[in-house]
Amino acid sequence: MKKVIVLGANGQLGKTIKDYSPSEVIKFHFFSRNDLDIVNKNSLKAIFKDSGFKYCINCAAYTDVEGAETNTEDAFLINAEGAKNIAEVCNTYHVKLIHISTDYVFDGKKNKPYTVTDQTNPINQYGKSKLQGELFIQEQLKPHYIIRTSWLYSLHGKNFLKTIINKIEDDASLNITTEQEGTPTSCIDLADFIIHLIDKDSIPYGIYNFSANGNTTWYGFAKEVAKNYNSKKTDSIKPSGVFKTLAKRPKYSVFDLSKTERIYKEINTWQKSVENIVKAYKG
Length: 283
Ligand SMILES: NC(=O)c1ccc[n+]([C@@H]2O[C@H](COP(=O)([O-])OP(=O)(O)OC[C@H]3O[C@@H](n4cnc5c(N)ncnc54)[C@H](OP(=O)(O)O)[C@@H]3O)[C@@H](O)[C@H]2O)c1
What we know:
Layout lengths: L1 E6 L4 H8 L6 E6 L9 H8 L6 E4 L8 H4 L1 H22 L2 E7 L22 H16 L3 E6 L2 E2 L6 H10 L4 E4 L3 E2 L2 E2 H14 L5 E5 L5 E2 H12 L7 E4 L17 H6 L6 H13 L1
Parallel strand pairs: 1-2, 1-3, 3-4, 4-5, 5-10, 6-9, 7-12
Antiparallel strand pairs: 8-11
The chain binds NADP nicotinamide-adenine-dinucleotide phosphate.
Protein backbone atom coordinates (compact mmCIF):
# COMPACT_ATOMS: atom_id res chain seq x y z
CA MET A 1 0.00 0.00 0.00
CA LYS A 2 1.46 3.39 -1.01
CA LYS A 3 0.87 6.18 1.49
CA VAL A 4 0.13 9.49 -0.24
CA ILE A 5 -0.27 12.90 1.42
CA VAL A 6 -2.51 15.45 -0.31
CA LEU A 7 -1.91 19.12 0.61
CA GLY A 8 -4.52 21.83 0.01
CA ALA A 9 -7.14 19.09 0.22
CA ASN A 10 -10.11 21.47 0.45
CA GLY A 11 -9.53 23.07 -2.96
CA GLN A 12 -11.32 21.87 -6.08
CA LEU A 13 -8.53 19.51 -7.16
CA GLY A 14 -7.99 18.20 -3.62
CA LYS A 15 -11.70 17.46 -3.24
CA THR A 16 -11.82 15.76 -6.63
CA ILE A 17 -8.97 13.45 -5.58
CA LYS A 18 -10.95 12.73 -2.41
CA ASP A 19 -13.90 11.65 -4.58
CA TYR A 20 -11.63 9.16 -6.33
CA SER A 21 -12.83 5.65 -5.54
CA PRO A 22 -10.76 4.14 -2.76
CA SER A 23 -7.83 2.32 -4.24
CA GLU A 24 -6.42 -0.95 -3.05
CA VAL A 25 -2.89 0.22 -3.68
CA ILE A 26 -3.00 3.84 -2.52
CA LYS A 27 -3.88 5.15 0.94
CA PHE A 28 -4.53 8.89 0.82
CA HIS A 29 -4.00 11.23 3.78
CA PHE A 30 -5.77 14.55 3.22
CA PHE A 31 -4.61 17.82 4.82
CA SER A 32 -6.51 21.07 4.33
CA ARG A 33 -4.97 24.48 4.99
CA ASN A 34 -6.35 24.36 8.54
CA ASP A 35 -4.67 21.01 9.15
CA LEU A 36 -1.33 21.94 7.61
CA ASP A 37 -0.11 25.31 6.32
CA ILE A 38 2.59 24.81 3.67
CA VAL A 39 4.20 28.11 4.66
CA ASN A 40 5.04 26.60 8.05
CA LYS A 41 8.05 24.35 7.48
CA ASN A 42 8.13 23.04 11.03
CA SER A 43 4.53 21.83 10.77
CA LEU A 44 5.37 20.12 7.48
CA LYS A 45 8.39 18.44 9.07
CA ALA A 46 6.34 17.23 12.01
CA ILE A 47 3.76 15.59 9.73
CA PHE A 48 6.29 14.10 7.28
CA LYS A 49 8.70 12.74 9.90
CA ASP A 50 8.24 8.98 10.41
CA SER A 51 5.11 9.14 8.21
CA GLY A 52 6.14 6.61 5.59
CA PHE A 53 4.61 8.79 2.83
CA LYS A 54 5.74 7.64 -0.58
CA TYR A 55 4.21 10.54 -2.56
CA CYS A 56 3.06 14.07 -1.82
CA ILE A 57 0.45 15.71 -4.07
CA ASN A 58 0.58 19.47 -3.69
CA CYS A 59 -2.80 20.99 -4.54
CA ALA A 60 -2.22 23.93 -2.16
CA ALA A 61 -1.78 27.28 -3.85
CA TYR A 62 -2.69 30.95 -3.86
CA THR A 63 -5.01 30.83 -6.89
CA ASP A 64 -6.62 34.26 -6.98
CA VAL A 65 -5.05 35.62 -10.17
CA GLU A 66 -6.52 39.11 -9.71
CA GLY A 67 -5.70 39.19 -5.98
CA ALA A 68 -2.07 38.28 -6.66
CA GLU A 69 -1.55 41.66 -8.36
CA THR A 70 -2.08 43.45 -5.04
CA ASN A 71 -1.38 40.67 -2.50
CA THR A 72 1.81 39.75 -4.31
CA GLU A 73 3.66 38.92 -1.10
CA ASP A 74 1.05 36.32 -0.13
CA ALA A 75 1.10 34.80 -3.60
CA PHE A 76 4.89 34.37 -3.46
CA LEU A 77 4.81 33.16 0.15
CA ILE A 78 2.43 30.32 -0.74
CA ASN A 79 3.25 29.53 -4.39
CA ALA A 80 7.02 29.95 -4.19
CA GLU A 81 8.18 29.65 -0.53
CA GLY A 82 5.46 27.08 0.25
CA ALA A 83 6.50 24.94 -2.73
CA LYS A 84 10.15 25.26 -1.62
CA ASN A 85 9.26 24.12 1.92
CA ILE A 86 7.44 21.08 0.54
CA ALA A 87 10.36 20.19 -1.75
CA GLU A 88 12.85 20.45 1.15
CA VAL A 89 10.75 18.28 3.41
CA CYS A 90 10.16 15.73 0.62
CA ASN A 91 13.92 15.62 0.08
CA THR A 92 14.63 15.04 3.78
CA TYR A 93 12.03 12.28 4.15
CA HIS A 94 12.43 10.65 0.69
CA VAL A 95 8.97 11.49 -0.57
CA LYS A 96 8.25 11.93 -4.30
CA LEU A 97 6.47 15.19 -5.11
CA ILE A 98 3.64 15.75 -7.58
CA HIS A 99 3.21 19.51 -7.85
CA ILE A 100 0.59 21.38 -9.86
CA SER A 101 1.59 24.39 -11.94
CA THR A 102 -0.05 26.48 -14.60
CA ASP A 103 -0.22 27.64 -18.23
CA TYR A 104 0.26 31.16 -16.80
CA VAL A 105 4.02 30.57 -16.68
CA PHE A 106 3.90 31.50 -20.40
CA ASP A 107 3.38 34.92 -21.98
CA GLY A 108 0.93 33.62 -24.61
CA LYS A 109 2.81 35.11 -27.55
CA LYS A 110 3.19 31.76 -29.31
CA ASN A 111 0.63 30.61 -31.86
CA LYS A 112 1.17 26.89 -31.62
CA PRO A 113 0.93 24.60 -28.59
CA TYR A 114 3.47 25.07 -25.78
CA THR A 115 5.83 22.16 -25.16
CA VAL A 116 7.44 21.47 -21.78
CA THR A 117 10.73 22.92 -23.00
CA ASP A 118 9.34 26.22 -24.30
CA GLN A 119 10.68 29.42 -22.75
CA THR A 120 8.63 30.58 -19.76
CA ASN A 121 7.84 34.28 -19.34
CA PRO A 122 4.92 34.95 -17.00
CA ILE A 123 3.06 38.23 -17.46
CA ASN A 124 1.24 38.43 -14.13
CA GLN A 125 2.18 38.03 -10.46
CA TYR A 126 0.35 34.72 -10.05
CA GLY A 127 2.31 33.25 -13.00
CA LYS A 128 5.56 34.66 -11.64
CA SER A 129 4.96 33.16 -8.19
CA LYS A 130 4.04 29.75 -9.67
CA LEU A 131 7.15 29.77 -11.89
CA GLN A 132 9.32 30.58 -8.87
CA GLY A 133 7.73 27.59 -7.11
CA GLU A 134 8.66 25.34 -10.05
CA LEU A 135 12.26 26.61 -9.99
CA PHE A 136 12.61 26.02 -6.24
CA ILE A 137 11.31 22.45 -6.62
CA GLN A 138 13.73 21.72 -9.48
CA GLU A 139 16.62 23.04 -7.34
CA GLN A 140 15.68 21.15 -4.17
CA LEU A 141 14.36 17.78 -5.20
CA LYS A 142 15.09 15.26 -7.93
CA PRO A 143 12.03 12.97 -7.61
CA HIS A 144 9.42 15.48 -8.73
CA TYR A 145 6.64 15.76 -11.28
CA ILE A 146 5.55 19.30 -12.15
CA ILE A 147 2.20 19.15 -13.92
CA ARG A 148 1.26 22.33 -15.78
CA THR A 149 -2.48 22.52 -16.25
CA SER A 150 -5.03 25.10 -17.41
CA TRP A 151 -8.59 26.42 -16.91
CA LEU A 152 -9.54 23.89 -14.20
CA TYR A 153 -13.16 23.14 -13.39
CA SER A 154 -14.90 20.57 -11.24
CA LEU A 155 -18.04 19.90 -9.21
CA HIS A 156 -16.37 21.61 -6.23
CA GLY A 157 -15.54 25.14 -5.15
CA LYS A 158 -15.74 28.19 -7.37
CA ASN A 159 -14.95 27.77 -11.04
CA PHE A 160 -16.01 29.12 -14.45
CA LEU A 161 -18.22 26.14 -15.36
CA LYS A 162 -20.23 26.40 -12.15
CA THR A 163 -20.51 30.19 -12.54
CA ILE A 164 -21.97 29.75 -16.03
CA ILE A 165 -24.46 27.13 -14.80
CA ASN A 166 -25.56 29.47 -11.98
CA LYS A 167 -25.99 32.36 -14.43
CA ILE A 168 -28.06 30.15 -16.75
CA GLU A 169 -30.23 29.19 -13.78
CA ASP A 170 -30.70 32.93 -13.05
CA ASP A 171 -31.69 33.58 -16.69
CA ALA A 172 -28.87 36.08 -16.98
CA SER A 173 -27.57 37.14 -20.37
CA LEU A 174 -23.80 36.93 -20.59
CA ASN A 175 -21.05 38.56 -22.58
CA ILE A 176 -17.95 36.39 -22.53
CA THR A 177 -14.55 37.21 -23.95
CA THR A 178 -13.18 35.66 -27.11
CA GLU A 179 -9.76 37.20 -26.49
CA GLN A 180 -7.94 34.25 -24.91
CA GLU A 181 -7.40 30.83 -26.35
CA GLY A 182 -6.73 27.87 -24.10
CA THR A 183 -8.13 24.55 -22.91
CA PRO A 184 -10.67 23.87 -20.16
CA THR A 185 -9.52 20.93 -18.03
CA SER A 186 -11.64 18.73 -15.79
CA CYS A 187 -10.18 18.06 -12.33
CA ILE A 188 -11.48 14.49 -12.76
CA ASP A 189 -9.21 13.97 -15.79
CA LEU A 190 -6.28 15.57 -13.98
CA ALA A 191 -6.85 13.44 -10.86
CA ASP A 192 -6.83 10.31 -13.04
CA PHE A 193 -3.47 11.34 -14.54
CA ILE A 194 -2.01 12.00 -11.07
CA ILE A 195 -3.13 8.55 -9.89
CA HIS A 196 -1.58 7.05 -13.03
CA LEU A 197 1.82 8.54 -12.11
CA ILE A 198 1.57 6.98 -8.63
CA ASP A 199 0.25 3.63 -9.86
CA LYS A 200 3.02 3.24 -12.45
CA ASP A 201 5.69 4.47 -10.03
CA SER A 202 8.33 4.41 -12.76
CA ILE A 203 7.53 7.33 -15.03
CA PRO A 204 10.50 9.67 -15.65
CA TYR A 205 10.52 12.75 -13.42
CA GLY A 206 10.13 16.24 -14.84
CA ILE A 207 7.57 18.62 -16.27
CA TYR A 208 4.35 17.36 -17.90
CA ASN A 209 1.59 19.36 -19.57
CA PHE A 210 -1.91 18.26 -18.73
CA SER A 211 -5.14 19.61 -20.23
CA ALA A 212 -7.94 18.17 -22.29
CA ASN A 213 -7.41 17.92 -26.05
CA GLY A 214 -8.33 20.79 -28.34
CA ASN A 215 -8.74 24.45 -27.59
CA THR A 216 -11.34 27.18 -27.38
CA THR A 217 -12.03 30.60 -25.87
CA TRP A 218 -13.86 31.40 -22.62
CA TYR A 219 -16.84 32.23 -24.87
CA GLY A 220 -16.62 28.81 -26.57
CA PHE A 221 -16.33 27.13 -23.17
CA ALA A 222 -19.43 28.95 -21.85
CA LYS A 223 -21.44 28.04 -24.98
CA GLU A 224 -20.49 24.37 -24.58
CA VAL A 225 -21.56 24.40 -20.92
CA ALA A 226 -24.91 25.93 -21.91
CA LYS A 227 -25.37 23.46 -24.77
CA ASN A 228 -24.98 20.55 -22.35
CA TYR A 229 -26.85 22.06 -19.41
CA ASN A 230 -29.84 23.61 -21.16
CA SER A 231 -29.56 23.96 -24.92
CA LYS A 232 -32.42 26.51 -24.98
CA LYS A 233 -30.11 28.96 -23.19
CA THR A 234 -27.12 28.98 -25.59
CA ASP A 235 -28.36 32.20 -27.24
CA SER A 236 -28.09 34.07 -23.93
CA ILE A 237 -24.31 33.83 -24.25
CA LYS A 238 -22.76 36.45 -26.51
CA PRO A 239 -19.15 36.99 -27.58
CA SER A 240 -17.34 40.05 -26.31
CA GLY A 241 -13.92 41.69 -26.63
CA VAL A 242 -11.36 42.33 -23.94
CA PHE A 243 -12.56 41.80 -20.38
CA LYS A 244 -10.78 44.44 -18.33
CA THR A 245 -8.81 42.89 -15.47
CA LEU A 246 -5.96 43.90 -13.20
CA ALA A 247 -3.86 40.88 -14.14
CA LYS A 248 -2.78 40.38 -17.75
CA ARG A 249 -3.67 36.96 -19.14
CA PRO A 250 -1.77 35.08 -21.86
CA LYS A 251 -3.66 35.40 -25.17
CA TYR A 252 -2.78 31.86 -26.13
CA SER A 253 -1.92 29.05 -23.71
CA VAL A 254 -2.67 25.78 -25.46
CA PHE A 255 -0.47 22.82 -24.47
CA ASP A 256 1.34 20.28 -26.59
CA LEU A 257 0.30 17.02 -24.91
CA SER A 258 2.53 14.60 -26.83
CA LYS A 259 4.97 13.92 -23.94
CA THR A 260 2.06 13.24 -21.56
CA GLU A 261 0.12 11.02 -23.96
CA ARG A 262 3.24 8.91 -24.56
CA ILE A 263 3.32 7.85 -20.89
CA TYR A 264 -0.45 7.93 -20.29
CA LYS A 265 -3.18 7.54 -22.90
CA GLU A 266 -5.07 9.73 -25.33
CA ILE A 267 -6.75 12.44 -23.27
CA ASN A 268 -10.45 13.34 -23.74
CA THR A 269 -11.42 16.29 -25.88
CA TRP A 270 -12.46 19.28 -23.78
CA GLN A 271 -16.01 18.97 -25.18
CA LYS A 272 -16.28 15.33 -23.99
CA SER A 273 -15.08 16.24 -20.49
CA VAL A 274 -17.51 19.18 -20.26
CA GLU A 275 -20.32 16.83 -21.31
CA ASN A 276 -19.27 14.32 -18.61
CA ILE A 277 -19.14 16.86 -15.81
CA VAL A 278 -22.41 18.57 -16.71
CA LYS A 279 -24.04 15.11 -16.68
CA ALA A 280 -22.56 14.47 -13.23
CA TYR A 281 -23.70 17.93 -12.07
CA LYS A 282 -27.27 17.21 -13.15
CA GLY A 283 -27.00 13.92 -11.24
N1 LIG B 1 -8.02 26.82 -11.01
C1 LIG B 1 -7.42 26.88 -12.19
O1 LIG B 1 -8.01 27.26 -13.21
C2 LIG B 1 -5.98 26.46 -12.33
C3 LIG B 1 -5.36 26.56 -13.59
C4 LIG B 1 -4.03 26.14 -13.70
C5 LIG B 1 -3.35 25.66 -12.61
N2 LIG B 1 -3.96 25.61 -11.39
C6 LIG B 1 -3.22 25.07 -10.25
O2 LIG B 1 -3.86 23.87 -9.86
C7 LIG B 1 -3.70 23.68 -8.45
C8 LIG B 1 -5.05 23.38 -7.82
O3 LIG B 1 -5.90 24.49 -8.06
P1 LIG B 1 -7.40 24.56 -7.53
O4 LIG B 1 -8.21 25.17 -8.63
O5 LIG B 1 -7.79 23.26 -6.94
O6 LIG B 1 -7.22 25.65 -6.40
P2 LIG B 1 -8.21 26.03 -5.19
O7 LIG B 1 -9.55 25.44 -5.40
O8 LIG B 1 -8.07 27.50 -5.01
O9 LIG B 1 -7.51 25.27 -3.97
C9 LIG B 1 -6.30 25.68 -3.44
C10 LIG B 1 -6.30 25.20 -2.01
O10 LIG B 1 -5.03 25.56 -1.43
C11 LIG B 1 -5.30 25.95 -0.11
N3 LIG B 1 -4.20 26.77 0.42
C12 LIG B 1 -3.94 28.07 0.18
N4 LIG B 1 -2.87 28.47 0.91
C13 LIG B 1 -2.46 27.39 1.61
C14 LIG B 1 -1.42 27.17 2.55
N5 LIG B 1 -0.60 28.16 2.90
N6 LIG B 1 -1.27 25.93 3.08
C15 LIG B 1 -2.11 24.93 2.74
N7 LIG B 1 -3.12 25.08 1.87
C16 LIG B 1 -3.29 26.30 1.31
C17 LIG B 1 -6.59 26.73 -0.18
O11 LIG B 1 -7.16 26.81 1.10
P3 LIG B 1 -8.14 28.06 1.45
O12 LIG B 1 -9.25 27.99 0.45
O13 LIG B 1 -8.55 27.75 2.84
O14 LIG B 1 -7.30 29.28 1.31
C18 LIG B 1 -7.39 25.86 -1.15
O15 LIG B 1 -8.11 24.88 -0.45
C19 LIG B 1 -3.01 24.94 -7.93
O16 LIG B 1 -1.62 24.69 -7.83
C20 LIG B 1 -3.24 25.95 -9.03
O17 LIG B 1 -2.22 26.93 -9.06
C21 LIG B 1 -5.27 25.98 -11.23
